[in-house]
Design a protein that fits this description.
GMP Synthetase, Chain A, domain 3; 3-stranded mixed β-sheet; 38% helix; 21% strand; FSCA_dom_sf; iron-sulfur cluster binding; NIF_FeS_clus_asmbl_NifU_C; iron ion binding
Length: 108
């Protein structure tokens, strides 16, 4: 399959299965797709930049993309940069240790 095909499939998957990102004022961008290695890089931004559960959303996207496509070997999800991006330290490691997030799964 071509990188364009993997990019298109990834974009379609996110649009169809993670509509909450856009519904809540966020956005995603497929930054890079390497068809040969199966590596995909996705950035989330907009309202996601200041959202307290963005780290868990990023973790869920990473896992679900990897599970959805056999030809994906690695998924990187990061917060989009740029002049409008809010600085939000990653809380994923802390949240992973918190009991209330043990079985957390975003509603998408």
């Amino acid at each position: 399959m071509s990188a364009q095909s993997l990019e298109r499939r990834t974009r379609n998957y996110l649009s169809n299965n993670v509509p909450q990102i856009q519904e809540h004022g966020g956005h995603f961008e497929i930054e890079d797709v390497n068809d040969e290695t199966g590596e995909v890089t996705i950035a989330i931004g907009g309202a996601c930049s200041g959202c307290g559960i963005a780290p868990m959303t990023m973790k869920a996207i990473k896992q679900r993309i990897a599970d959805e496509f056999d030809d994906v070997s690695e998924v990187t999800v990061r917060q989009a940069g740029g002049p409008r991006a809010a600085v939000m330290p990653s809380k994923t490691d802390e949240m992973d240790q918190m009991e209330e997030y043990e079985d957390y799964s975003p509603p998408f």
